[in-house]
Amino acid sequence: MHDLIEQAASDLVASNHAIVLTGAGISTESGVPDFRGPKGIWTTNKQAEAQAYQRYERFLNDPKAYWEEMLGTVGSGSDFYRQMREVAPNPGHHAIARLEQMGIVKWAITQNVDGLHEKAGSQNVMHYHGTVEKLRCLSCGSRFGIGEFSLEKLPPLCRCGRPLKYDVVHFQEPIPSDIMDAAEEEAMKCDLMLVCGTSAVVYPFAALPAMARSRGRGQSGVKIIEVNAEPTPLTHQGISDYLIQGKTGEVLPVVVDEVNKLMGQRRKHE
Ligand code: APR
Known about the structure:
Radius of gyration: 19 Å
Order of helices and strands: HEHHHHHEHEEEEHEHEHEH
Largest sheet: 6 strands, parallel
Number of helices: 11
Number of strands: 9
Distance between the termini: 30 Å
Oligomer: single chain
Bound molecules: adenosine-5-diphosphoribose
Structural class: alpha/beta
């Protein structure tokens, strides 16, 4: 594995426009369960998955009932999103923030709604599936910090008068076009894509690596590196160049150490 870690470090140092794609796997070491891993929420609780598939429809039909469920004031739901706002980033998140501070990683595009990349110090983060830190209006597209609303009176209303929902993108809900376009632009611009902690089965996010791969391999193409606990369709279909199989919180900090070493050697020879 260390050879692959050294390879990833030299690929990152050689890159001009590297981006990182992340999924729930990068937050499991922070105590946030993933969805489809061996201990994943959907793997262990089919009822929760079925409920998640009804959430968007519920908001469209009855925004008050949606909020009561989301806040856990009615039914079996718990204020899962409030708990998520209380967890801390782990060495995997810190490693990505470090690579951004070095000027190597230009953007982190995440499926995670937990806000842990920012808590670790990342500045350039795209929330492809939204975030638990914000509310969004489906009508005018406005987004607000969750702290701007008391949530005593439900549903909270946008300035345009329409009910607000969590910024989180639920199943069946379209990805907001501003985020979708920005992510695709980066997939078409990057020369290195580091894909961390995702099963790469949920679309349209899972299409981003294939979009980058369509631009070719090698010198003029894109290098796609996976860091994941298990192989994914990206591995099996040969979309990624290689997989570093392990925990992101253990692998990514070692990659950063190797990048540091290479940058140090490079400076010495300048
Ligand atoms: N390090 C590396 N990989 C890990 C770790 C870890 N510490 N923990 C789990 N994994 C791997 C799992 O083995 C799995 O392959 O991360 C992957 C997580 O995949 P999913 O649970 O499917 O999560 P994700 O890909 O982010 O799901 C996409 O689906 O449920 C929806 O909206 C939700 O954003 C989510 C989307």
